Amino acid sequence: MIDSTPRRLHLLEQYEDGEDSRHFSLRIEQPAASDLAAKAGQFFMLTLPGVGEAPFTYVSLPDAQGCFTALVRRAGRLTQALFDQPAGSVLGYRGPFGHGWPLFFNAQPLLVVAGGCGLAPLAGVIEQASRQAMPARLSVIYGARHSGAQVLGRERARWQQTLPFIETFDQAAPGQRQGTPLLHLDEVFAAGPPAALLCCGPEPLMRASAEACLQRGLRADRIWLSLERRMHCADGLCGHCYLGSSYVCQDGPTYRYDRYLQLLGRSSPISQAPPALFC
Ligand SMILES: Cc1cc2nc3c(=O)[nH]c(=O)nc-3n(C[C@H](O)[C@H](O)[C@H](O)COP(=O)(O)OP(=O)(O)OC[C@H]3O[C@@H](n4cnc5c(N)ncnc54)[C@H](O)[C@@H]3O)c2cc1C
Ligand code: FES
């Protein structure tokens, strides 16, 4: 039987981290082995007593004390109420859920493309690459509407020391790069074609990035997206998170691009994927 009872989660600290976004430090009381085995790209359900429950991704994963961080953008009732919570508040936690990013750091260059808050689910992957002896193997293109809309300020400052990290803006100030992440793909491909793309952001950006990478020779089974859908149970019971015949809470939120197209009943205008390599 599925146990959907939230466990106790302590709010340690929160600070502003981008327009309408805050960075939360949290601690799971008595973390379980499954919490410590959480993977970058997985998500958890946060309960605010008397308000409700919502899914969020881990920015940093739970450590042995159960401490982890999350980036939350103000959207509506629950997120606003969460912003109003003081340090020391006791919240609820369920997780980890879903499938994280495939971690194929086997000497192959990776490309991360993120838009807005979509940088948060990719933080674990970037952090891992920046700490390992292969940081140059991962390149990031991060797009935001303007610099005030960027998130993960402290993390970006650190990553920029070790990784090729392109920042681009819809409304660029003088000296900043202008345009969507797509405009900067050629620069990354010219430096060495990536073996895989991990992408998170608004769905149109993810689809456009995937297609642009296909056009540049990357195969559909080397492209991964992370999807957001309305979620209630996160246990594959309520059906709120359907993507075709798939439950995003169970099978996602990360999907290989060829599988994503298949679930949508579409095919890529660019190419068909050869047999799967990674799952
Ligand atoms: C797997 C997953 C991971 C997520 N990770 C994060 C994260 O790390 N940080 C973060 O800030 N948010 C994340 N979200 C989104 C977050 O769950 C919603 O913003 C939150 O549920 C909004 O709750 P609310 O009560 O404040 O707003 P509501 O009043 O429920 O909604 C406000 C507005 O946001 C829209 N909305 C709410 N939830 C979603 C959704 N899932 N997809 C699309 N639109 C939605 C509503 O339609 C409405 O227009 C994630 C969602 C999923 C499915
Ligand atoms: S959220 Fe209920 S089935 Fe996915």
UniProtKB/TrEMBL annotation:
Known cofactor(s): FAD; [2Fe-2S] cluster
GO MF, one example: flavin adenine dinucleotide binding
Positions that bind [2Fe-2S] cluster: 233, 238, 241, 249
Alphabetical list of Gene3D superfamilies matching this protein: Nucleotide-binding domain of ferredoxin-NADP reductase (FNR) module, Translation factors
Free-text comment on the cofactor: Binds 1 FAD per subunit.
Protein name: Oxidoreductase
An individual GO BP term: pyrimidine nucleotide biosynthetic process
